[in-house]
Amino acid sequence: MRPTIERVQKDVSPSWHFVDYHCIEPKIGVQCGWHYHDEIELVLYYDPHHVAPGKIIIDDYVGEAAHGNAYLTGPGLPHMLTRVASTATPERPSSSHVLWLDQSWIQSLVATVPALSAVSDMLVRANKGLMLSKATFDALYPLMNGASQLKPAAQFVRVVEILMLLCEDKSAQTLTSRPFCFYVAKDTPILDKLEKAQQFIADNYNEQISVQDICSHLHMSESSVYRMFEKHFADSFSDHLKNYRLGKACEMLVRSNIPVSVVAERVGFSNLSNFNRQFKTTKGMTPTDFRKLFG
Length: 295
Description:
Layout: E1 4-5, E2 16-23, E3 27-36, E4 40-46, E5 55-58, E6 61-64, E7 70-73, E8 79-86, E9 94-101, H1 103-112, H2 118-126, E10 130-131, H3 134-144, H4 152-168, E11 173-174, H5 189-204, H6 211-218, H7 222-232, H8 237-255, H9 260-266, H10 272-283, H11 287-293
Parallel strand pairs: 1-3
Antiparallel strand pairs: 2-9, 3-8, 4-7, 4-9, 5-6, 5-8, 7-10, 10-11
Helix pairs in contact: 2-4, 3-4
């Protein structure tokens, strides 16, 4: 099972992208695998008839993908969505609405328009993931629903309105225990190193890799690699690798029935007891109990 680094295709503007996903018929096993991307992501779940219940995992947070839930995730923050089944019909529809935002563009917008300075603080909070308040969901839904069909100028106005609503949500709840990646300007040498490090881990997480392997791959000293991870991922290399493996384990537990021992081996843990201990410490439950959440 390969990890994915999602590349968002922005048809209208390179700075933002709206998408509406509508469900109007019964479906089994709707899945969005464990992934991350460079953009900031805002997603709303509209399901007034409760026909498509699901779970969302954002790093070490597990929550509901249910009507009235809205989540904001920062760049590089891994997440996944799963729905066991949907009983939607044209008369009882369900939908989700997504906005992806380019972080560099937002930073330049804030620099140009001082009135939007509060956006910077909101972006820092998004590095840990946010669950927005119900009031914010209610205000966001009419702005997000159908925005993908608007002309670029009208979409831009919606984006600014959405950013201001996000900044005003003082009740938004922080989700993860740590930030996953801080803002890094595009076209800088360190961004290239970060992307190569992420890709190397994505390609080799199931092997016994070490920091020396990363050093060789990036042509960097061990001390430089350690500093890079601590600064830009707020984690040591070993903790970052462990958490990535546990995220992939979550995906396998949800999407397959293979034994827990096999899951542990496939994500790079050579010792089952260590895997169970690390999983429970991070997720607050055993791998078996986690799987039952999605049964």
